[in-house]
C-alpha cells in the first residue's frame, strides 16, 4: 500500500483518480478547498475509513506556501498526483483566476515537496495543452486564451523547476494533441488529456454544476441544440476512467518517469455524440445538421509521431 497525496480531489477527473487509487488498495490524502468538499467525498466512498482516505485543506493554491503543510504526512507520501487547477470561464480577472492558480499552484507544490517531503519519488501532473507560443499579453485578453496559456505556462514552469532544482523526485505528465515539440523528454512525467467524457462522481446537486466537457451532452439531451449543432473545437477524446488509470500507472511504473504521455480513445465529433444520443433516446430533438468531423482533419490534427507516442503509452503504462 502506497501513501499518496492527490490535489484537487473533488474535481471531475480527480474523483476518478481517487477511486482508482482506493480500488487498488492505496492510502490517499486529498486536498480540498473546504469541509463541504471533504464530506462530499466521504459520502461518495462511505466504506473507506480515515486510514485510507483523509483530507487536507488548501483554500487557495495560488498562495505562496499553500502546500507546505499539505505535503507532510505520517506515514510519509511516496507519490503526489497534482490535478488541482481551474477549468472554467466564469472569471473576472484572467491573471488572478486562471494564470496564478495554475502556475503558482504547480511551482508551489514542487517547492513544498522538495522542502518538506523527501520521501516522495514520483509526481504526476495533469496538463491539457502543448507548449504553444502564446504570450502573457495575449493570455489576458480573454478567458479562452487565459485558460490555454495557464496550462502552457504551468507545464513549462514544472519542467524548468526540475531542470534547475534537480529534486529527488521525478515528474510525469499526460498531454493532449496540440503538440509543438514532440521529441523532447524530461526527468519528470506529465499527463495532458483531450476532451474528457464519462460518468460524474459524486452525484450532481443540479445539472448547472456539470463539468465543462459533459455540458454539450447535457445540452443535447435537454433539447438545446434543435436548430444546429456546433462543431467541436477538439476532435479527440478519452474516457475519464481510462485517464484516471493512466495517472496511477504513471505514478507506479519506474519507466514512466521523465515522459509526457498522450491518452486518447480516438476521434469524435459532436455529430457522433448527437447520433448516439438519438439512438438511445429517440424522443430527444436534436438538429439534423452541424457538428460533423471536418474534412481532412485526421491528417491535420495529429503529427505522424503520435502513433509512436500512443504506442509508448501502451508499452509503458498499459
Give keywords.
318 residues, 8-stranded parallel sheet, 36% helix, globular, alpha/beta, 3-stranded mixed sheet
Give the overall form: globular
N-to-C CA distance: 20 Å
Average pLDDT metric: 84
- Topology as a string of helices (H) and strands (E): EHEHEEHEHHEEEHEHEEHH
Walk me through this protein's architecture.
The chain is an alpha/beta fold and 318 residues long. The protein is built from 9 helices and 11 strands. Strands 1, 2, 3, 4, 5, 6, 7 and 10 form an 8-stranded parallel β-sheet that branches. α6 crosses α8. The longest helix has 23 residues, at 94-116. It starts with a strand and ends with a helix.
Write a compact overview of the structure shown.
The chain has 318 residues and is α/β, with parallel strands linked by helices. Helices cover 36% and strands 14% of the residues.
Amino acid at each position: 500500500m502506497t501513501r499518496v497525496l492527490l490535489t484537487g480531489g473533488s474535481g471531475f477527473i480527480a474523483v476518478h483518480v481517487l477511486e482508482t487509487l482506493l480500488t487498488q488498495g492505496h492510502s490517499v490524502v486529498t486536498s480540498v478547498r473546504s469541509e463541504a468538499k471533504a464530506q462530499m467525498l466521504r459520502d461518495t466512498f462511505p466504506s473507506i475509513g480515515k486510514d485510507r482516505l483523509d483530507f487536507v485543506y488548501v483554500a487557495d493554491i495560488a498562495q505562496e506556501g499553500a502546500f507546505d503543510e499539505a505535503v507532510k504526512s505520517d506515514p510519509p507520501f511516496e507519490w503526489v498526483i497534482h490535478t488541482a487547477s481551474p477549468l472554467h470561464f466564469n472569471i473576472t480577472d484572467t491573471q488572478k483566476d486562471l494564470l496564478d492558480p495554475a502556475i503558482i499552484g504547480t511551482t508551489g507544490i514542487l517547492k513544498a515537496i522538495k522542502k518538506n517531503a523527501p520521501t516522495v519519488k514520483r509526481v504526476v501532473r495533469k496538463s491539457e495543452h502543448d507548449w504553444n507560443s502564446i504570450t502573457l499579453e495575449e493570455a489576458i485578453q480573454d478567458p479562452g486564451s487565459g485558460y490555454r496559456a495557464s496550462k502552457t505556462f504551468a507545464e513549462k514552469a514544472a519542467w524548468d523547476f526540475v531542470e534547475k532544482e534537480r529534486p529527488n523526485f521525478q515528474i510525469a505528465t499526460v498531454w493532449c494533441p496540440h503538440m509543438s515539440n514532440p521529441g523532447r523528454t524530461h526527468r519528470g512525467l506529465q499527463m495532458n488529456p483531450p476532451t474528457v467524457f464519462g460518468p460524474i462522481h459524486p452525484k450532481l446537486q443540479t445539472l448547472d454544476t456539470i463539468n465543462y466537457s459533459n455540458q454539450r451532452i447535457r445540452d443535447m439531451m435537454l433539447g438545446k441544440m434543435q436548430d444546429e449543432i456546433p462543431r467541436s473545437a477538439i476532435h479527440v477524446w478519452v474516457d475519464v476512467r481510462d485517464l484516471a488509470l493512466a495517472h496511477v500507472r504513471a505514478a507506479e511504473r519506474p519507466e514512466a518517469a521523465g515522459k509526457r504521455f498522450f491518452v486518447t480513445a480516438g476521434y469524435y465529433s459532436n455529430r457522433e455524440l448527437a447520433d448516439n444520443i438519438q439512438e438511445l433516446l429517440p424522443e430527444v430533438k436534436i438538429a439534423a445538421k452541424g457538428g460533423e468531423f471536418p474534412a481532412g482533419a485526421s491528417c491535420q490534427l495529429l503529427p505522424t509521431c503520435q502513433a509512436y507516442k500512443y504506442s509508448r503509452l501502451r508499452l509503458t503504462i498499459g
